[in-house]
Amino acid sequence: MSNLTLLQINNLEIEFPSRKSVLRAVDNVSLCLEKGDILGIVGESGAGKSTVGNALIGLLEPPGQMTKGEIFLDGNRIDNLSDSEKQKIRGKEIGMIFQDPLTSLNPLQTIENQLVETINLHLELGENDARQRAVELLDQVGIPDPDVRVKQYPHQFSGGMRQRVVVALALCAEPNLIIADEPTTALDVSIQAQILDLMRGLCKQKQVGMVIITHDMGVIADITDRVAVMYRGRLVEHGATEKILGNPDHPYTQSLISAVPRPDIKLIRFPQVTYIEDVAEKNTEFDITEHWLGKPREYEAAPGPLVELKNISMRFTTKPAFLRKNRIFLDAVNNVSLDIHEGEVFGLVGESGSGKSTVARIICGLYTPVSGAINFAGTELTALKKQSDLDPFRKQMQMIFQDPYSSLNPRMRVLDIVAEPILFHQLAETRREVEIIVKDLLEHVGLGAQSAVRYPHEFSGGQRQRISIARALATRPRFLICDEPTSALDVSIQAQILNLLKDLQEELGLTMLFISHDLPVIRQMCDRVGVMKDGFLCEMKETEVLFENPEHEYTQHLLNLMPRLEGLSLEGLDMQPQPNQK
Amino acid sequence: MLAFILKRLLQSVVVMLTVALIAFALFRYVGDPINNMVGQDTTLEERAELKERLGLNDPFIIQFYRFVRDASVGEFGLSYQHRRPVKELIAERLPATLELALVSAILALAIGIPMGVYTALKRYGFLSRTFMTISLVGVSLPTFLIGILLILFFGVILRWLPTFGRGDVVEIGWWTSGFLTASGLKSLIMPSITLALFQMTLIMRLVRAEMLEVLRADFIKFARARGLPTRAVHFRHALKNTLVPVITITGLQLGSIIAFAIITESVFQWPGMGLLFIQAIGEVDIPVMAAYLVLIAFFFVVINMVVDILYFVVDPRLRVDKALVNGQ
Question: Which tens digits make up the pLDDT trace of A27-59?
């Protein structure tokens, strides 16, 4: 152990005993970290990476316990300390940053109170000096007007600013080691870049060691010096970041890296990622062109574009008032016009609050726009007043939502969930027929017909998203709206779902509106892209042209912030021979 | 904030007027007020004259206006049963009920909140499980049964505590207080426990559920990760965050303690408003019933206002944020 070694973990093993069995969440993990270095721990959900972080700071969730191994901080063993000794180390020696800045701060206390409380606990500065230090800390993490802001409550800060406050709180006693558990996952890409910059700067400048736990290869590539890859509790690979990303040895790392959507090249398909949840390969027993699903739609081809938005605007009242002049409005969508052609995948990209989801909701009729017109296959939807007139169009449009956990009714069987739209639109003659169709659909999205009798909670996130896709396909739609369909999923599962969507789109000739904040995903999926900011559509172009040649200032800004992921292994990728420039 | 209070005030006035309308309708149209006032041998002419003199021939809206005007200064007319102004009767009985309600509310809060916190923190402890089981009994046994059991045990068998009445009271102006004499305090024990028991268990279960919820929150985990001592995490960070829903329920419960002291007051023959009301129902004493109705509605409205204002004190997110609005 050299005297530069800050953290040393030897043969760590953590178990979660339950009534039936013992789950080994972390199995024989050894790591070390030097001062001023940033170590990334990467892996997918359930890999045990957060458990390692919690064990380091002594906050394992019961019934979890360390059954083997040792942890040394600065040469002193810390894993066998008593609870009160561990509590003294927390905050003072080890700081921790959590994922969600919106819930990490006590909503009922001012920032100052929370900072001063922690500073006084560790440094014993006295009230006035502690206040002084609180302001300095806010200044250090880049919060403007720190002396005013310090008196405010968390809800008065935006997400990115709150994460800065969280960083300030974690740093307040100048710990030597910072553990950051998904520190930027809940943030927009521009804020993510700022926070990562801030953390890297602080690390290098103060010679603090940092462990970043994340599932995001972009973050890993951006900020870490070394990286450890975890898979099902085990450490599969560990080394310098360039080496692991550029030339991975372990097959799991290889498959994980091949699943990362590339910002710089468009792939035809993601290579089949093998090391992941059990999903049956797509069933190709039946010929899609013969089957109910693939039967030619009875719709006439649209004369112009399939979906056409003309000068759509939408505003929400954020502060209601009796007098109109006192009301405060938010213009969520501002004079947006776009058209989506039959058979095309159209992408909408933007940061949170840019209005991209509002556009989707306006198209499928969940919101009524304040002004403007929507044409679908030549019919003006905004002119239709009666619900029953809209139904035939609803049948042709379906939506897939972001959160696979809340978009399925937990009390319905999968069979009933998928059958619901078929029954509602009376697309099948008998109950028996419906059942056959549902089973075929489930087979087709890779779940297998036997999943029909199960309930949503029995499935993982990726599998649930497959159920959502089956449900969306059940009306044989022409137009599919996908609102961030993969942003809640792990990268390899994301690759599978994106592959599935691509395949379905080709087979069924679907038209798609694909909404995402993730530029590399957009590049993989879309033929054309619109970039939105603050309710305005800034730029609309062919995907490849936009990525190679952004014109609008904001698009350039977004593309600049996108993690470059250079030096990522290209092995086994299914690349498009030429950039697609139609 | 001022706008909010004004709005709530306006709503309260509407609520009060509605209740007043019901009370007035009760007074005016349930039975014949003249019949209730005069004896059997009054002639028809005398009745007609009395009716004219009392303004009962005036249009509905004018009569209602008069009722509201009088009610707003506490004038509800004569009790049919006691032949005394309702105002006096209520003023006599009000201190008894308010003292009982106050003691019960304090008992419920002072025991319920710590018990809730304890059962949340030591979730699987023996004592917590015992509390939870007992609280189940508290919620499910009807109030009168608890009162009767207490009387049987402490009043009849052990003879420790008086079984009825308020004991000796001290007059302070128009207020009569049982707090200052030994027999007054002794008499207060059983009724207040009876009345508090249900509220106590309710508050305990509510605090426990909220506390468990808050303890799972990220900011608690973050507070622990900063090394804050357990006590500070539990009380400074967790408890305060559980209080918002607790305040709501407690406020409503305080209203119902006052309103529904009826049962407890009957069991213990407590000379409060509830007992007055029960007797009024028996005797069809409409003015007393009307007054009681309006008064209880008034208590509820006031308590709700106070609760709404307390929200602002506890939760900064509700204070309309001028800086933020201007900043946008």
Answer: 999 999 998 899 999 988 778 888 999 999 888
Residues B115 and B244 in one domain: yes
* Chain B CB contacts of A151 below 8 Å: none
Closest approach of B180 to chain A, Cα-based (Å): 40
The answer to whether B225 contacts A117, with C-beta atoms less than 8 Å apart, is no
CATH topology of domain A1-93+177-188+208-229: Rossmann fold (3.40.50)
User: Mutate which of B2, B213, B226 to disrupt the A interface (most A C-beta within 10 Å)?
Assistant: B226
- CA gap B113, B109 in Å, rounded: 6
Q: Are A176 and A210 in contact (CB under 8 A)?
A: no
Positions in chain A short of pLDDT 50: 1, 277-280, 282-284, 578-582
Provide the number of structural domains found in chain B: 2
Chain B: which residues have CB within 8 Å of chain A? 217-219, 221-230, 232, 236-237, 240-241, 314-317, 321, 323-325, 328
Tokens (6 digits) for A370: 């304040």
CATH classification of A343-352+386-575, choosing from 3.40.50.2300, 3.40.50.300, 3.40.50.1100, 3.30.1310.10?
Answer: 3.40.50.300
C-alpha distance from residue B219 to each of A489, B226, B313 (Å): 24, 10, 21
Looking at per-residue pLDDT, the higher value among A420 and B316 belongs to: A420
Each as own residue / partner, the long-range contacts of residues A139-146 (CB below 8 Å, 24 or more positions apart, any chain) are A140/A168, A140/A171, A140/A202, A141/A165, A141/A167, A141/A168, A141/A171, A141/A198, A142/A194, A142/A198, A143/A168
For an interface test with B, the pick among A59, A96, A108 (most B C-beta atoms closer than 10 Å) comes out as A108
- Which residues of B fall within a CB distance of 8 Å from A153? 316-317
The answer to whether residue B221 is domain-embedded is: yes
Nearest residue, CB atoms, A319 vs list B217, B224, B325: B325
* Residues in chain B closer than 8 A to A172 (CB atoms): 226
A517-565 confidence digits (pLDDT tens)? 888 899 989 999 999 998 899 999 999 899 888 999 999 988 888 877 7
Q: What chain B residue is nearest to A57 in terms of C-alpha separation?
A: B225
Q: Which residue of B has its CA nearest to A171?
A: B226
- The verdict on B16 and B129 lying in the same domain is no
Residues A557, A518: Cα–Cα separation, whole Å = 14
Is the pLDDT at B325 greater than 60? The verdict is no
Same domain, B52 and B131: no
Same domain, B133 and B43: no
In a domain? residue B322: no
Domain with B130 in it: 94-283
- Would you give the DSSP letter of residue A282? P
What does pTM read for this prediction? 0.77
Question: Do residues B21 and B131 share a domain?
Answer: no
State whether A98 and B222 contact (CB < 8 Å). Answer: yes
- Is B236 in contact with A117 (Cβ distance < 8 A)? yes
Q: What is the DSSP string of B147-164?
A: HHHHIIIIIIIS--S-SS
Cross-chain Cβ contact B219/A107 below 8 Å: yes
Q: Do residues B100 and B15 both lie within one domain?
A: no
Quick check: B252 pLDDT over 70?
A: yes
Residues of B in contact with A168 (CB under 8 A): none
Q: Are B211 and B242 in contact (CB under 8 A)?
A: yes
Domain at B148, CATH number: 1.10.3720.10
Average pLDDT, chain B: 84
**Chain A residues touching B315 at Cβ < 8 A:** 107-108
Please report the sign of the dihedral spanned by the C-alpha atoms of residue B255, residue B259, residue B262, residue B265.
positive
Chain A residue nearest residue B230, CA to CA: A87
Cβ within 8 Å, pair B317-A117: no
What is the pLDDT at residue A297?
Answer: 60
Domain-wise residue ranges, chain A: 1-93+177-188+208-229, 343-352+386-575
Return the residue of B nearest to A86 by Cα.
B227
Rg, C-alpha atoms of chain B: 25
Are the CB atoms for A30 and A235 separated by under 8 Å? yes
